[in-house]
Amino acid sequence: MVLNIGGTCFQTNKGTLEKWPHSRLARLDTSSPNYRPDRGDYFFDRDPHMFTYIMDFYRNDTLHFAHNLCDSVVRRELHYWGIDEENVSPCCWGFVTQHGEHRATDDLLCEALDLDEIYALSKDKPMWHRAIAPWWTFLDDSASSDAALVSNWETSSCFALLQNYSYWIAFALLLSTLNIIFSTWDPFRVPARYSRVHFNVTNNPKLMRFETTDPHPVLVVLDIALTGFFLGEFIIKCIVCPKVHTFFENSLNVIEIVAVFPKVIVLALRYGFPDLANHRQLYLAYYFLTMFEVFRVARLFNFGKHYVGLRILMVTMHASASETFFLVFLMFVGAVVFGVAIYHCEIRSLHTMADMHTGAYWAFNTMTTVGYGDVVPVTFQGRALAIVCSLLGLLITGLAIPIIANSFDRYYSQARLMLMRQRLGCPIDPMYPVDVDADDTELMAKVLSDRMVGLAGFRLQYE
């Protein structure tokens, strides 16, 4: 039999092809649409270089591929010729299965970078959707083309300032964080206009500062302005968001809710009730809501919406959760073991390692190479154990951290390519075509069923 693959002829016999009866070549006969009677061969418009590996599989019963080939192309050829991927030799199995990992990576990046189209700006959509879609894209991703559509209007010069909206958001977040920090510094606080001493806090200078002083008026005005800005942005996003339930499922938006609305209530209670300390219930609510200040600092995670690097870092930590958990688990086990051991090594010392939890605290600091120095061993056996503890800590962190760093490098490189393809208007995540003719449906169904049966045997043979 003569097989003409893209102009290159391969000669074999029918018995060789029938060794794999469920493949495409095993079903060839003179009635096949690929048969050319005038030349007496079977023509396939495929890559002859790739077919070399396919033909070698029929002859030697082993399927190998060069590792410089694209794994998607290899899978496409296997699907076309009706060859099960489980027939790939163990030495090439990891290379062929990279496609699944790449697809998982692409899915994570598409979700993190918001590359999926939320609004389809087609004519079938209502006018309201087509009107608010650019504004949602502008608020959510100021680097997009829809954002440019809003911010580059030539009819009004004020919109030119919005072209770098992400920088304004970053500036507002930084200013809000600095405002929180400076409001706890004595030079930026003034005596309170109204006494709010309601609890016995005279022995705690931090609480006394909070009860007897107020932030500087400039900080108060800035705080009110920034709170109004973030509240207005959040309300506008709620109005123009495409899917409200999806919007509130986003953890960053939940942080925004917890950061903004308690602050609005705190400001209302502080300046709406001058004698707040005389209303015990209101004062307790006010005191409780002030604890949500920490979420205002957590708003810094919103930087990830406007900067690719931070989003890739969050994706990396999410994808490396198992490695991170393994690292924390080893650290925890090591801290407990060395904490107990150092307690017994220092049992004769009167001034160090008073209990086992202090020993675990010392062990964790030593294994992470922090070493505060507030607790140290003083005996010979304790110092010898400290050397072993520090070396083991270096080994544990040295094994796990490079895995996370490699994941970040892979995700970051892939994200740059995906963003470049998006700017060029190319498909972000193109699916490779499965070249199966309509009359080959039964063939592919048989191959898929055989895969389920042969998978167990493959694992038993090679694992």
UniProtKB/TrEMBL annotation:
InterPro entries: BTB/POZ_dom (IPR000210), Ion_trans_dom (IPR005821), K_chnl_volt-dep_Kv (IPR003968), K_chnl_volt-dep_Kv3 (IPR003974), SKP1/BTB/POZ_sf (IPR011333), T1-type_BTB (IPR003131), VG_K_chnl (IPR028325), Volt_channel_dom_sf (IPR027359)
Keyword Transmembrane helix: yes
Xref: Pfam families: BTB_2, Ion_trans
Protein keywords: Ion channel, Ion transport, Membrane, Potassium, Potassium channel, Potassium transport, Transmembrane, Transmembrane helix, Transport, Voltage-gated channel
Chief site of localization: membrane
Entry coiled-coil feature ranges: none
Domain BTB intervals: 1-99
Transmembrane segments: 165-185, 218-240, 252-273, 285-303, 324-343, 384-408
Gene Ontology annotations of biological process type: action potential; protein homooligomerization
Membrane-topology annotation of the record: Multi-pass membrane protein
Gene Ontology molecular functions: delayed rectifier potassium channel activity
GO (cellular component) term, any one: voltage-gated potassium channel complex
SUPFAM superfamilies: POZ domain, Voltage-gated potassium channels
Compartments where found: Membrane
Name under which the protein is recorded: BTB domain-containing protein
